Amino acid sequence: MEDLKQIWQSYHQKLEDGLAINKQQTEEISTLKAQSFINSMKSIKIFTIIIGILWVLMVDYIVFHLSVYAFHVSIFFLVSAGIQSLITKIAIGVYVYQMYLIYNVDISHPIIKTQEQITRLQASTLWVTRILFLQLPFWTTFYWGDYVFQNISIFMVQISITAIFTYISVWLFLNIKKENKDKKWFLLIFKGKEWTPLLNAMKTLEQIENFKAEKN
Amino acid sequence: MDYRQWFQDIIEEHKGIFFKIARTYCLDEIDRQDLTQEMMIQVWQALPKYNQSAKISTWLYRIALNVAISFYRKGSTQKSKNVPLDKQVFHIQEEHVPHKEEQINLLEQFIGELKEFDKALIILYLEDKSHAEIAEILGISVTNVSTKVSRIKEHLKLKFSKHSNF
Predict the structure, then answer these.
(1) Is ipTM strictly over 0.90?
(2) Does domain B99-166 have CATH number 1.10.10.10?
(3) N- or C-end of chain B: fewer Cβ atoms within 10 A?
(4) Residue B163 to chain A, least CA–CA distance (Å)
(5) Tens digits of per-residue pLDDT, B5-27?
(6) Using CB atoms, which residue from A24, A114, A193 is nearest to B66?
(7) What is the 8-class DSSP label of residue A20?
(8) Residues A145, A147, A153, CA angle at the centre, nearest 5°?
């Protein structure tokens, strides 16, 4: 192995001797013209938070005005929209907390500490997904009205749909967790390159746990 | 303090750290250029917080490795088929590219197969860092570093011996 150290060092020394730095690029960096991918992650989160807040404001405005001024509006609409808005607010709260954590990550701290912080942060996105799935049944109740209770067939169909969606949402809330990351249904939900950092973060968390352990 | 000049001096003096880590973590040339640029940006942004409690090389290794490991998680993002020369952070002049012996090829290949944190540890070992410094960069105990270095060395030895048997 000592020989390999020598091979590594002598080869890289030769490479380093011929290594030239592009001063124009490093100057651009020091004038902050270059884009950082870590900063772009922050931008996506800020964008999501803004859209979420606008959505919640709109839903709350509608629910408030209908409940005060529209006497014949269905109670199912008001309750469903109100609960959806509440669940979205909780998800926004998690996102805001993540932003706080992102700003507190110090990239110059020891590798294991920093990576643990970053990967726990990325993996916590699972919480947002779990919470948002709880909205599912309320998308099947907001349009209910007296007509649902006046016809047994319509009532049976509606109640079945809501029951199925309730079961799915509770099941997903309980089962979307790190331990199931290799299951087929999990990979189907989190398919696509936008989920790659989340899936990789969960694998890295496992690696960190193993790496921290002194027995190998 | 002139941070810009300090930044340029640090990059010039320690360019090898970024170059070697980027080569080890990224096989693709375009990704490697992106990774190197990201390392530079993070060094520039963290520079005002550097308080000399750690050696500058220790501090730079932490940033470079943290960025490299996080970059791997993000997945590949090839934006274009090639990076123009004026956009590359590092460039090696053709006449300076050394002949690659089989052993260095194999060593790079075997290191490439290691897990992300083992890769970080073995780079630091091959760079002749002491176990205490490796422990400071990674944030694990010196005993843990010794155990892991022995295990990875054994693993690499086995790989080399298997290869020479074929």
Answers:
(1) no
(2) yes
(3) C
(4) 15
(5) 999 999 999 999 999 999 899 88
(6) A114
(7) E
(8) 120
